[in-house]
Specification:
The protein has 239 residues and is an alpha+beta fold.
């Protein structure tokens, strides 16, 4: 099976399955095996000193593979890119009613991100917190950082220079290679997920999405963010 260079593999596991081998970790490895094109065992997936996963015997090769796995609820997502010098990060979150999301945002997100979340909440959109969270998480996983570094991640939302309340998605960093983020909403009447993936490398690549389960969710692209040099006025995260 042939796939483009940059792929996102998704699956929805049955919530009433009884096979203990059908864990999110095993499902992630199954998707990764299909995307890679050959079977993988648990021993084939190693972790570096920062806990970032990589494939045994894969580093430095011309067709080297970088990947990331995330799961939430009964969804598993795998982001994979093939080619020397590319890295990827991925995060998926089941949208839930949580009482502490605003407190988390006020503590770890930038002022502009908090304003965006509040403005969306007033419009009846309760997914804005998860949009920002997944973007930050996929960057953390791209870099091999820890969730405890989330307060240090640059803002993903900025107020417009004319002072408009809504502002816009953006990401400013001194990055030497192209770095792009892709944000998606996957939902039906019963459930809703937010997913973000990031890719860094020598070229800009558009991800190709593939489902590997009988059940699927309609997938809508929310925004594509291309990292750029820092603006004149940078919004610093709350620390």
């Amino acid at each position: 099976m042939n796939f483009p260079l940059f792929n996102i593999g998704l699956t929805l596991m049955s919530i009433d399955h009884i096979d203990k081998n059908l864990t999110p970790t095993a499902e992630g490895r199954r998707i990764l095996s299909i995307l890679k094109g050959s079977p993988l065992t648990e021993q084939d997936i190693l972790k570096d000193d920062n806990g970032r996963p990589y494939l045994s015997g894969n580093r430095g090769q011309a067709d080297s593979i970088d990947f990331n796995i995330s799961h939430s609820g009964n969804m598993t997502a795998v982001s994979l890119v093939k080619g020397t010098g590319f890295r990827t990060g991925c995060d998926v979150q089941l949208v839930k009613n949580r009482t502490n999301t605003l407190k988390i945002a006020e503590r770890f997100f930038s002022n502009s991100e908090v304003k965006y979340i509040l403005s969306q909440k007033e419009k009846g959109n309760d997914t804005a917190f998860f949009e920002i969270w997944t973007l930050k998480e996929c960057y953390i996983k791209l870099r091999g950082l820890s969730v405890f570094d989330i307060g240090k991640i640059p803002s993903f939302f900025y107020e417009n220079r004319d002072g408009a309340e809504t502002g816009s998605f953006a990401f400013y960093t001194d990055n030497t290679a192209p770095l792009s983020f892709y944000l998606y909403k996957l939902s039906d009447k019963a459930k809703e997920y937010i997913m973000a993936t990031a890719i860094e490398g020598t070229a800009e690549l558009q991800p190709s999405i593939h489902w590997f389960s009988e059940s699927i969710l309609p997938c809508k692209s929310i925004v594509t963010i291309k990292a750029a040099p820092s603006p004149t006025e940078t919004v610093s995260p709350n620390m």
